[in-house]
Amino acid sequence: MGLQNLKGRVAFIFEEDDFDVDQIVGVKNIKIQDLDELAGLAMKSYDPDFASQVRKGDVIVGGWNFGYGHPHYPPMKALRHLGVAGVIAESFSPGYWRGEISMGFPQCSCPGIRAAVNRWDEIEVDWQAGVVRNLTQGTEIAFEPMAQSDALMLEAGGLLPYLKMNPAG
Amino acid sequence: MGHTITEKILARAAGLPSVRAGDEIMAKPDFVLAYDFPGYTDVYFKQMKEEFGIDKVAEPERYGIFIDHMVPVATPKEEELHEGTRKWCAENGVELFERRGIGHQVAAEVGFATPGAFVVHFDGHISQLGTYGTLGIGMRRNVLEAFVREKVSIKVPETVRVNLTGTLRPGVMARDVFHHIVRVLGPASCRFQVMELGGDGLEGLTTEGIQSITCLAMFTGALTAIVNPDQKRLDYALPRARKKLEPVYSDPDANYAAVHEIDLSELEPIVVVPPTPANTRNLSDYAGLEVQTGYLGSCASGRLEDIEIAAKILEGRRVKTGFSLHVIPTSQEIMAEAARRGYISTLVEAGAFVSSPSCDYCFGRIATMTENQRAVSTGTLNVKGRMGSPDSEIYLCNAAAVAASAIEGRITDPRKYL
Question: Quick check: A88 and A60 in contact, CB under 8 A?
Fold first, then answer.
């Protein structure tokens, strides 16, 4: 597929399974729309220095059933605003998955990923080869292929451009 | 090898002779449903016109719009949203169901739960139409696809079969069955799959109870839940059906990703403790915990059997002073019947606050909790801040437990009042 590989550092690893992404900005901030304000709040309870350390292109790693609960859009908008380019998790909760793919935000379902990386390792998601490479450790691990329509939506940049490319269905 | 009910429904909707789990297809939803909500319907309506140049949906009879959130409105801005929805429906010739109750329930009452039909919505609780052998899938934002195209892209899901046997003991309700499923199978047990309920135990559950279970399927990771409709479900659904379709059923040799057995007679009342639907515990372990408010309602619960058992428990008793008990029947049809049967007067006399149907109690828009308050609730969800302050807590349980807890102001095992 024509999707550009993700290449960056593992900016954070969420160890817990069934992770509720709303925690990233905190539930009390979930209705904030302003991206700078959201980004300023993101990850504060996990790592107060996150915003100053994260770089454009970095990725987030998560556990099983990432995005469980009642996911809202602002947390990932905040992470994208800080430069985060995608999420690689052991597996995803379907509602979260759909929502973020429709935003054009790459997600990669990769069983075993938590054990395969340390924080700040440099990694690459090679969509063509179907592997996540740990460039720091010189290892690689296969990920689960995504549905073709999801891949096309990501390539297009999200739901709207995807539907516009083929409005007749 | 045979096919699951889901494969059969999607094959017909895709115009294909057969499909298998894993196939990526384009399927035409028989019905496209949505409730109006800021950031959702107002955005779809705008995008349809401005981004895709579509003035009107084709085949308006396939669409149904509900006004069930922000009912009644509290700000001019909310009323403006509803006005926009009314206008869009009128222009498009799409039927609007306003103030009839929570849309997922009303959808069944007005015939969108056509056995064998494929239905999409943005909200995943539409899964409850599965009670009638209807495949209802929540697509989140992607439901826009169904507003601007005839078909939607979907990967045919695998199916996990859950066979229920035995009968529930007194004080244990359908809500407990769902929470028990999460407990024993896990919150990711049906991820991207369909949870198909079966087994003799279904016969002992009411249609309403099955709707409680199918409504919550998303918290197992399921895309939806479905039942092979028996005569009882067909007797309800077929006379109302909006489309003439042949009901379909899973073949005996259909392929399941997993098959689980659950003995209903072993269950006891469950409480789901904050902050996630995965935290299922025995209610008896939490008995005595102080609670300040109770909510009996939602698209999952709040139907006749829920109101009936609450009335039975509260008859001749009083809601504890200082405790706020809110009872909100799921639909107008249910509320009228509950009134005819005398449940409403019993609840009001016991001190309950009874309101007309609305989604608003479930997500804290009204009856909002402040910090350090706790609710017992039959709502759908117990994540932080769902019913008010992020520092308030929601304990999900069955309707009987909400009623019993209202008497004592503490989480209370309902069996002592039955």
Answer: yes
Domain count of the fold of chain B:
2
Residues B320 and B381 occupy one common structural domain: yes
| Partner-chain residue, chosen from B47, B187, B389, that has the shortest CB–CB distance to A68 | B187
**A64 neighbourhood in chain B, CB within 8 Å:** 188
**B139-189 tens-digit pLDDT:** 999 999 999 999 999 999 999 999 999 999 999 999 999 999 999 999 999
Round to whole Å and give the CA distance between B377 and B394.
7
B306: three-class secondary structure by DSSP: helix
Domain ranges for chain A, please list them.
6-165
Other CB atoms within 10 A of residue B363 CB: 18
- Whether residues A22 and B192 touch (CB distance < 8 A) is answered with no
User: A6-165: which CATH topology?
Assistant: Aconitase; domain 4 (3.20.19)
A159 and B142: CB-CB below 8 Å? yes
Tokens representing A68?
A: 């469980």
Question: Does the distance separating the beta carbons of A164 and B24 come in below 8 Å?
Answer: no
Instruction: Count how many pairs of residues, chain A against chain B, have C-beta atoms within 8 Å.
Output: 95
ipTM reported for the complex, 2 dp = 0.93
Q: What is the pLDDT of residues B309-338, one digit of tens each?
A: 999 999 999 999 999 999 999 999 999 999
Per-residue pLDDT, averaged over B261-278, amounts to: 97
Taking alpha carbons only, the member of B62, B1, B52 closest to residue B28 is B62
Inter-chain CB proximity B140 and A20 less than 8 Å = no
Residue A167 has its nearest CB partner, among B148, B187, B191, at: B148
Q: Which CATH number do you get for residue B258?
A: 3.30.499.10
Burial of B132 (0-12, 13-18, 19+ CB in 10 A): buried
User: Alpha-carbon distance A9 to B131, whole Å?
Assistant: 46
> Shortest CA distance to B30 belongs to which of B125, B133, B101?
B133
How high is the pLDDT of residue A27?
Answer: 87
Cα separation, A138 vs A122, whole angstroms: 10
